[in-house]
Amino acid sequence: MTRESADLTFRPMEAGDRDLRAEALLRNFNRTAERFTHADLDAPPLSVYLPFDPARGDVGHVVLSGGKAVGMAAAVFAQGYGHISDDIPELWIHVTASHRNAGIGGRLIDLILQDGRAAGWPGLSLSVEDGNPARRLYRRKGFTDHLTPGVMLLQLGPEHPIRSVAVYCGSSYGAREEYADAARDLGHELAARGLTLIYGGGDVGLMGTVADAVVDRRGETIGVIPRQLVDREMAHRGLGRLDVVETMAERKTRMEDLADAFIALPGGAGTLEELFEVLTMQQLGHLTGPIGLCNTEGFWDPLVEMLRRAVDEGFLRGKYLDALVVADTPAEVLARFDGWTAPGRKWD
To answer: What are the residue boundaries of the N-acetyltransferase domain, all occurrences included (predicted)?
Structure first.
């Protein structure tokens, strides 16, 4: 179906529009320097973006003026520069110089977003270098900087989107430096996605690392800490907000009330206690947000196996184990939160 707008016509992109995509790709990649020719279309990086396959979920639109193509946009499931995860397509846009600054790029993005929401995409990514004026348009449309330099992400989450994430983790660093790396990566991911960190308010161990990472990227932070730990000078002084409570039980309840989702990094007894409380609250229907395990270096493998044994022995329903998000990296955990569906209450 075509769409008419003044002297412009918008139509769906087709696989047969290869020549249009080829010219657009060459102009996009040669924006800052003449480097690529048609001979380069069969090799990366251009060859990644040139195919268009609706069967794999690709969508796109072409803008015509007087019967001539003056712009196009495609969202493709390809391993391009802006790739974040296999279920998030990458957007690329081209508008001819004669038709720029006329709102065409914004209208193309709106059409792609309509397609994406209808298809249930968890998000839409793109690659854009620093200094490109198109970044202003992308920010107006809701894209934010991703952890990967030069990559932006727009989340297309559920009707009740995730805005804050409670992070449970160790108050020590653990035996592997990879644990601190994961905590740092999680903090950077939260800040890049505009998600508020809800955590235990301390400045020690992995707790301090994840908070420092969010603060360094100017993200939002809320710490919840018992007064006895404040008195021991263990509170993080650089947070946007610090809630001081009287007991550990109050701390857990406050964090649960503030958070839309929950992630456990490696940790000890306290981390396990907090994790199992929210898992239980999910079964009772008191929490409806996703719960994830950042499985750095396979840390959570024994726990997942124990939960699987509980399912096999009839003590846990399989749907709750299926609903638990387990992934190796923070980016993967957060990507799988998009489009997550609550498993429902145990007693229904």
So the answer is: 8-157
